[in-house]
Amino acid sequence: MITKDIVKLPKSIVEVTVTVPWADMVQMWDATLQKMAQEVELPGFRKGQAPINMAEQNLGIKLQDEVLKGAMPNFLIEALKGTDVVPIDYPKYDLISFNKGQQLQFKATITNRPAVAVGNYKVIKVTKPAPKQITEEEVQKVIDDLYKRWQAKNPIKQDSGVTGAPQNDKGAAQAGSISFQGGGQIASSGRSIDPPRNDISTNGQAEGPDDAFARAMGALSLTDLKAKIRKDLEANVSYNNELDFEEAILQEVEKITTVELPEILIQDELNRMLVSLQRRVADMGLLLEDYLKSQGKTLDALKSEWRIQAEKNVRMELGLADIARQENVTISDAELQAEVDKIQDAKVKAQFEAQEPKLHLRHALRQTRTLDLLKKLVGG
Q1: Could you tell me the CATH number of the domain that includes residue 277?
Q2: In which band, very low, low, confident or very high, does the pLDDT at 172 lie, cut at 50, 70 and 90?
Q3: Which of 148, 138, 145 lies closest to 230, judged by CA?
Q4: Rounded distance, CA 269 to CA 90, Å?
Q5: Are residues 271 and 319 in the same domain?
Q6: Hey, which of 89, 165, 196, 289 would disulfide with 192, CB 3.0 to 4.6 Å?
Q7: Burial code of 103-123, b = ≥16 C-beta within 10 A, e = fewer?
Q8: Counted domains in the chain
Q9: Quick one: DSSP state of residue 31?
């Protein structure tokens, strides 16, 4: 029977010393030896045919290392059964003593799932702000910006009056919806539409946004284009308004969450923030090193600036997870699979055949459902 000694240290660090008698090790030793012996080649013997004692001698320390590779994680799991220790990272193993025929003793250092205490989240008060009204000036600004970009890509020719719609490799106008990137003339039906001559001024230049321009953007008319733009702007305002509302709720959750934050979770969050910055910098066509140089900062200095926010983010995440536990929020296997089935990219979808990505997705869905529950509780 194995014995264990568990010592809890600050910052959720736990040291577990495990002692395993040889009687509990011998079966694993023999099974590992038999497997590895199949690959041993010795003079005078075919591969895998050498006597087992000679193969064992030839393998030497490799055999012991292979036995320990499987033994220590297995016996650590057994040692933690019935305890309140739940590792949230990969253990660090230190071998204390072991030889064939003798007991195994090792120490595993792990980060325990921290104890989380959340205050009365049911009385959180957050007022959802009213969405900002979209003005005519904002709609017109989008129209003007689109028109300028459209003009730059579709210059008016003095001799013919107008250039035609952009063509694909088969000579047909490309179909699509409104192009907010200032793309070519694309009608909602997918047909090429050239503006009539009376849309062009006498000096050969367009007088301003008109129905022909609107049709090039995928709308039926300039009035229709303005309505579509207003609808998109309103949807964007509503989306950002909802994000602000959720963020306000999460900040309240963070304020009433008490937990001793494990360093590994803080570092994980800092790395996540760094990856996010790298993506934004890449979108600007820059390397992270060049961006940091332009800001006069080092990577360590940046992480130091971010640390307080990272701690808040982790506290917020743990608090929300504890509320999910208290409210018994769960994600069924069917719901999880339904989410995976929505993924269109075959390579990305294939990743969810592994257990770890599924665990992360289940957690994310559970957190989202818990946040939705909180939004109802605070009356949003």
Answers
A1: 1.10.3120.10
A2: very low
A3: 138
A4: 17
A5: yes
A6: 165
A7: bbebbbebbbbbebebeebee
A8: 3
A9: H
The residue out of 86, 113, 140 marking a domain boundary is: 113
Expressed as residue numbers, the domain containing 331 is 247-377
**Among 145, 221, 141, 156, CA closest to 188:** 221
Alpha-carbon distance of 120 to 132, in angstroms, equals 31
Whole-angstrom distance, CA of residue 215 vs CA of residue 311: 51
Single-letter amino acid, residue 170: K
147's tokens:
């028109």
List pLDDT tens digits, range 19-38.
Answer: 999 999 999 999 999 999 99
Nearest-10 Cα torsion for 25, 28, 29, 35: 180
CATH of the domain at 87: 3.30.70.1050
Q: How far is the C-alpha of 215 from the C-alpha of 188, rounded, in Å?
A: 8
Give the bridge partners for 167, in sequence order: 173
100 and 198 inside one domain:
no
pLDDT value of position 152: 86
Structure confidence at residue 306 as a pLDDT band (50, 70, 90) = very high
Residues 129 and 95 in one domain: no
Domain final position from 246, 279, 304:
246
pLDDT at 154 over 50: yes
- The first and second tokens of residue 118, run together, are 């959340």
Which helix H or strand E contains 4, and what residues bound it? strand 3-8
What is the Cα–Cα distance from 185 to 207, expressed in whole angstroms?
17
What is the signed CA dihedral for 202, 207, 212, 215, rounded to 10 degrees? 160
Give the Cα separation of 259 and 175 in Å (integer). Answer: 55
Say whether both 168 and 58 belong to one domain: no
pLDDT 10s digits, 315-364:
999 999 999 999 999 999 999 999 999 999 999 998 888 777 888 899 99
User: What single-letter amino acid sits at 315?
Assistant: R
Residue 298 in tokens: 């080092």
CA distance 242 to 164: 42
On whether both 281 and 323 belong to a single domain, the answer is yes
Q: What is the mean pLDDT of the chain?
A: 85
211, 261: one domain = no
